[in-house]
Amino acid sequence: MSLAPQARRTLRSAAALAVAFSLLLPVGTSASPVMPPRQGAATPGAGTHANAVTWVVDDKAKTITATMRLQLVSACDAAAVERATLQGPAAVARCNVTPEMVSAIKANIENAWNQNYKVLCYRLIVKVDVTVSEEKIGAKAAGAKATAGRLTIAIDQSGGLASSFVASDDQPPGATWRSTRPQDAAVPVNNHPRWPNTWKYPGNWENTYAHEAGHVLGLDDTYENFTDAAGRAHTRAIDGAPNDLMARPATDQIDLRTIKTMVQRAGIDPYSLKCDWTADRTVPGGAWTGTKCEGITGKWVLTTQIKVGGTDLHQIWTATIDGQTGVGTFVYDDEAITKVQGTTAWGWSHAEGSATVELQPDDSVKMHLIETQHDGWGRAVAAGQTFTTPRADQPLVNWDFPWETTECAQ
Ligand SMILES: [Zn+2]
């Protein structure tokens, strides 16, 4: 069990207390439900999509594996080879893609992307499969002759000013660097008429290839250029974007927001992942607990054992979430027995309504329940008097419960 910050704990405790008192008086909160995102359909664009990445989700191993297939080819065309021949062996060598270069590029990508990054409980694995074409036909021709299922990249060793880039389809209107919709993913193409995929060797930055691989995996750049008061040009992360590999290829650090954006762009809906969840909160007078295994779909049961004054409350909240969007219904029942200073009270209440289970940026889940119907009654025997309080048609109330990731026994 991990402790939430004190302020949040206090808030949750207050919410749980309100739940406890719902037997006797209506208490509401004003939180409004937020619908989780839905997965969109991919929109085919113009150009020759490289289809260079295969994504595999393994629910048993709890891994998301992206396998990227690249074909490297020298940027030299026949004329460049001829010039190199006149210049000598060193120049000729710059028209070859060697096994050492392949290893260096592959290692740069795999080292940066395989740092135990996780989407909920799933570990990201990026594998790079590289082949080399010996043809000396230049970047454009190589792109047009690309092998199906591979992104063809011209390796430029000329030492010129050119930078490394991956050509992509135009993204749909409204797509931004932070879009998580699959149709907003960068889609690398092989035969871009103006910008054949070109990577400089060696790269301009320590993690040039890892950064370019981010584009192959569907991500956008997150930097912008600007000029300071003295007229000097600089680059910085776009306002709001993490200052990570996609903003600054000098670093190999990748923000988890970037990882999540990428995985969602690949069409993997976090709501479909089979992670386990636990709710475990101590509140004044007791606790509420629950465990939910195998993902968001299905039954979430939360049990509250709490003592308020002399009242033992036993409550069961059952939310049934259908589909992969985190939306469903809930029912709630409680039962209380009070014995305080000769007073005996007994009562029950029942509620039902809608439930949403919403993933939070911190990888917790917020269960949000909205009552649409509430029923019950209480009865007390005090000093020889008996009175009964019927309950029905209570005002609508909202409840929030946080759940954290856990691991259910296999
Ligand atoms: Zn870039």
Provide key terms for this protein:
8-stranded antiparallel beta barrel; disordered N terminus; Collagenase (Catalytic Domain); binds zinc ion; 410 residues
Mind explaining what this structure looks like?
α4 packs across α6 (208-216). The two termini are 19 Å apart. The chain has an 8-stranded antiparallel beta barrel with strand order 9-10-11-12-13-14-15-17. Strands 1, 2, 3, 4, 5 and 6 form a 6-stranded mixed sheet that branches. A two-stranded antiparallel ribbon has the order 7-8. With 410 residues, the chain is α+β, with helices and mostly antiparallel strands. It folds into 2 domains: 6-37 and 272-406, no CATH class; 53-268, Collagenase (Catalytic Domain). 18% of the residues lie in helices and 38% in strands. Bound molecules: zinc ion. Zinc ion (ZN) is lined by residues 211, 215, 221.
Write the layout of secondary structure elements.
Layout (H helix, E strand, L loop, with lengths): L5 H16 L31 E6 L4 E12 L3 H10 L1 H5 L5 H15 L4 E2 L2 E12 L4 H7 L6 E6 L41 E3 L7 H9 L6 E5 L5 E5 L18 H10 L10 E8 L2 E7 L5 E11 L2 E12 L4 E14 L2 E17 L5 E18 L2 E8 L5 E9 L4
Parallel strand pairs: 2-4, 2-5, 5-6
Antiparallel strand pairs: 1-2, 3-4, 7-8, 9-10, 9-17, 10-11, 11-12, 12-13, 13-14, 14-15, 15-16, 15-17
Helix pairs in contact: 4-6
The chain binds zinc ion.
